[in-house]
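Reading group handout, session on sequence-to-structure problems. Before we discuss, look at one worked example. The prompt was deliberately terse, the way you'd type it at a terminal:

> structure IGF like family member 1

The input record follows.
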Amino acid sequence: MASRGCILAVFAIFFISRVLCSHRAPVAPMTPYLMLCQPHMRCGDKFYDPLQHCCYDDAVVPLARTQRCGKCTFRVCFEQCCPWTFMVKLINQNCDSAPTSDDRLCRNVS
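And the output record:
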């Protein structure tokens, strides 16, 4: 049977980690290792903070990254370029769907 000291130590560690996570402890890592309670996502074999980066074309990129679509610029973390129509749509919309008020038509540069 485990000693009473070991049980108390495990309980204390569990309790402290729950308290830190419930208050969203600071997550500014000084090393490349993930810290406890830090929100993270995976892109290929790399982890990233979704508040600062996104996964685009299997690469971790900053949220502000832009790219050209015809004569427009779109934000790769939030929008997509539908190349056959040069329409910029929100990332979760299908390129074949009917145009919406959120879409931008970006004719090809001649």
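Points for discussion. First: The longest helix spans residues 4-22. Second: Residues 89 and 101 are 10 Å apart (CA to CA).
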